[in-house]
Design goal:
Helices cover 73% and strands 1% of the residues. It is built from 15 helices and 2 strands. It has helices spanning 16-46, 50-72, 85-89, 94-118, 124-145, 151-158, 162-180, 192-206, 222-235, 239-265, 267-279, 281-286, 295-313, 316-332, 337-363, and strands at residues 214-215, 220-221. A two-stranded antiparallel sheet has the order 1-2. Helix 7 (162-180) runs antiparallel to helix 10 (239-265) and helix 7 packs parallel to helix 11. The chain starts with 15 loop residues before the first helix and ends in a 6-residue tail after the last helix.
Amino acid sequence: MATTGLETTANEPIPINQRRPRRTLNRLALALVAVAIAALGQMAFAQHSLWDGLLLYLVAAVLFVRALIHQSYPNFKFALANPHLANTLAVTKGRLNTIGLGLIGAAVVISFLSYTYFGQDERQHLAWWLYLTSLGLLVAGTIWLTPALPFRPELKRLFPNRQIVIGLVVVFGLALFMRLFNFTQQPFGIWFDEAEAGLAARHMLADPGYRPVFYQLINVTGHFLAVYAVALRWLGDSIYALRAVSVLFGLGGVLAAYLFGRELHGPRFGLALAFFVAVARWHVNFSRIAMTGIDTPFFEFLTLFFLTRLLKRGYLRDALWAGLALGFGLTFYTAFRLFILALALFVGVMALRWTSPVLTAMRQGGWQR
């Protein structure tokens, strides 16, 4: 009988006649979900959203094939090269599984509703709330659906000893000094983009109905303006409140650089990478002005950190955090799309390495990795 390799199994075998109905119902439910997502794709086509429709159809096709492939290939099975990854890829069972899937499904539906409302000026305020709600439901659903890792061992793995912690504190202090030294004097005056962003953020605070999706004059999204608006409210109505946002993104980029470097080649490499980012001239300059751009290294390093963890451990929550970091990177700075191209090239190289085994498996009527 076909197995996915992604589920834990009990010590005692379960009779086939007890498992088959449940497996059949699960596959039927997955096929129905695929049909529903395809319907959303058709709605996107009707609204002249070609790429959104194609993306939804692609997801629907993958789910539909996954649900019904055993009808054509009874011997199809997917096994992991590292059996220990089955524990991290496995989802929770019973009630937690149902709640997690339900929350994720609700997130998809609400996200699509928010997308449609963003095109209607009178409903943009509601669209933003639906968008934030969908993000919250997606995160909550994934957390419910996947088992948690122990916090203390994970923290110990990221910061293995006192020397690394002290070194990171020193690097962080250096980064903070270089971004705040003579903060009210340099750079002098207010740049055009800073002024426009500040005026738009003021407008958002003064008018609750003003929630732009995209501010074309300086080529930034509503996400960035919302962050500036929060800074003006909490830190005061000044240019330094706006520049404090860039300082925080710069410091976050230093920490994210350490996390990625630590995951890639160990804590010392991560510490060295964080140091070079902390003192890099371009990084310091963009950390002291209220302009978009400094957010890009932060989201790039976070994306690479979680993707590296995902490739090494196969933990599904890392896929969620990587997706969120990638998505926010795209919404904050348009040039972030070049990073997507780099990731696509990497995926293409990895796909070429998989081509031969997959074709061989298809000719044999199954897939055994």
